[in-house]
Amino acid sequence: MKVRNRVKKTEEFQELIHSGKKIANESFVLYYAPRRTDQSRWGISLSKKIGCAVDRNRYKRQVRMMILETVPFADCAYDGVLILRLGYRSKAYADNKKNLEKLLSKGTIV
After folding, report:
1. Disulfide: which of 38, 44, 90, 110 matches 104 by Cβ 3.0-4.6 Å?
2. How far is the C-alpha of 67 from the C-alpha of 101, rounded, in Å?
3. C-alpha to C-alpha distance for 47 and 29, rounded to whole angstroms
4. pTM of the full structure
């Protein structure tokens, strides 16, 4: 995921969380709102309860790749924030990717 397609600032995260719609499953919580720029932007957040810094960075890299493979940034009409849940750790990469795809299709994002 390129830097221009990432939500980085705390204010942007809070704005998407408070003004957007919410969908959840056992691995993710997704907040999304209509995009304001020419391309869709996505942010990833997770708690310290999920693991040590090494694990959290690995999970963020995995989720970035999942988003890159499933979301067409130029065509997507939404910005989003994905929050990882504790259930993410107990599942394989393929299962988590399927959960993300189901979540995105449920919200009619992809």
Report:
1. 110
2. 9
3. 12
4. 0.88
